[in-house]
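Case 324 in the screening queue. Each case pairs one protein sequence with one candidate compound; here the compound is zinc ion. For every case the pipeline is the same: read the inputs, emit a complex structure as tokens, and attach any notable structural observations.

Predict complex for case 324.
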Amino acid sequence: MGFSACECCMLPFKLIYSDEYFLPIGSHVFPAEKYKRVRDRLVATNVAEPSDIIAPRPATDEDILLVHTPRYVEKLKTGTLSAREELEMEIPYSPELVQAFWLAAGGSMLAADYALNDGIAISIGGGFHHAFPDHGEGFCMINDIAVAIRRMQRDEKIRTAMTLDCDVHQGNGTAVVFAPTSIPDLARTRKASSDVFTISLHQENNYPAFKPPSSLDMNLPDGMGDAEYLACLGSAISLGLSKFKPELICYVAGADPYFDDQLGGLSLTIEGLKQRDTLVFQLAKAESIPVMVTFAGGYAHKLEDTVTIHANTIVAAKEVFPGN
Ligand SMILES: [Zn+2]
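Case 324 output:
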């Protein structure tokens, strides 16, 4: 009788990760090393085994063009962003950075694909929700979430999806990508404007100053704590699912609603953030809707806290989806 040595602790779902997720942006408030730190923490604490972790391939230009304009993609590939465009992105342009974002998009595509098979999959990266079709903003060059959804739709693996964005900052890029108003360049790639339902729970008094409407925005007051937040999240998901039945949920599990975040003004605890993740997974499971997860932001004063919050997302997933 054969059995593998560690079936007991193998995850019943996949984690998507590559060392190349690292963003080469130098000294920056965005802790680019967090992805590797989370990966290493998960393995060191026996939450995951190396065999649970799948390395993605970069998205192709064709994939990126399902969301982004040819003009913007050309500028990125030829290094011809204007100074103003680079400033607005708030991360320093380099060809290596372009590769990292193409890989993040490939990782989110792979996570979406695995989620459709296994019920859940998590990319230890991605969640770049401030990227618009024709420009980047707020540390985001390419909207990997939107690319993953459009690729799954193009492959006819899904028709509909819901984004559930719990980063402390509003998902402005995602809202615009999937807004009914059309950008001429993109009209040809859009089958319908009502095939993706976008939900954003965010601190109202925070970046971005202008918040283009999502399908459902929850504008939260400064300092909101665990209990009220979890109540709002439950209401948002219930309301969203009462209006729209998606074939895939793309959960953007930002770590920055944390009380000790440098760029956030909500007051969730580490335990409250884990309860947030658990609630999302339980509701998705109850509705039998596959869920793919990306990380987005996280700027705690102590990097270890950001790592713990992100690692807990996988712990929560393992508790809700224990496999056999
Ligand atoms: Zn954020």
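Case 324 observations:
- The beta strands are 14-16, 53-54, 120-123, 161-165, 196-203, 216-220, 249-252, 291-294.
- Residues 49 and 253 are 22 Å apart (CA to CA).
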